[in-house]
Every structure is written in structure tokens, then in C-alpha cells.
Amino acid sequence: MEMIVDFPGGARVDAHFNGYTVKTDQPPAGGGEGSAPTPFAMFLASLATCAGIYVLGFCRQRNLPTEGIRLVQREHRNPLSGMVEKVEMEIQVPPTFPERYYEAMVRSAELCAVKKHLDHPPVFEVSARAVTHA
Q1: What is the pLDDT along the chain (134 residues), one digit of tens a residue?
Q2: All structural domains of the chain with their residue ranges
Q3: How far is CA 23 from CA 5, 7, 14, 43, 95, in A?
């Protein structure tokens, strides 16, 4: 997949791929307008929504209702560096959800592809070159 990133103005940075556009911005304190999530917030959202896809798939495979289920993600940062040191995910289910599925549902959420890539990060290669756009 190829992703094209452009700069539509201000502190906005947009990514275009597969017919989609993902818009990002910075908060006013960071020089932006706060018109969209920050890139880092999108990254965190990708973790939560990826785990959510696995929870949804788990429930669908077992014909379990998903109404009332939600995933709550919390980040814990190092107070000195500001870096995220821990990401906590809690799958909240209604009282009627069968308890016997809790552990298996957690294991399913842990299969998230985004999380797996963090466990085994890719190599990043950044370069720059001059091009003429048509």
C-alpha cells in the first residue's frame, strides 16, 4: 500500500490511501486549530479500534450480542519524558454477558495486528528526494 501525505494548511497533515483521507491537526496550544485528532491520537485510536475488531469478531463467531460492550483504553505516561509507558485496555460487558467468555475475549483482543507490530516493530527507513509533480 502506498500512502500520500500532504499539508493542506496550518498545522494540518492529511494521509491519503485506498480512496480514504485521514485528517490530522494539532491543538491550538501546538499551533493548530484542533480541527482533527493529532497523529499520535490516531495511533492510539488504531490500537483501540484494532482490539475492538477482534472483540467484535469473537462475539460474532459465537453469536454473542455486542450491545452494551465497549472497550475503554487508558494510556499511562512517564511523568518525566511524557512517553506512553503502558496502554491499558478494559473490555466492559453488560452483566448478562457470559463470564465464561471473558478470558477468551481478552486473548482475542490481544491478537490485534497493531499491537503485534508494536511487539515486533518494523524497520523505519526515511529518505528525501526532489521530484516533479504532474
Answers
A1: 999 999 999 999 999 999 999 999 999 999 999 999 999 999 999 999 999 999 999 999 999 999 999 999 999 999 999 999 999 999 999 999 999 999 999 999 999 999 999 999 999 999 999 999 76
A2: 1-36, 39-119
A3: 10, 10, 4, 13, 37
How far is it, in rounded angstroms, from Cα 12 to Cα 31?
10
Domain 39-119: CATH architecture, name and number where available:
2-Layer Sandwich (3.30)
C-alpha cell at 93: 460487558
The DSSP code for 110 is T
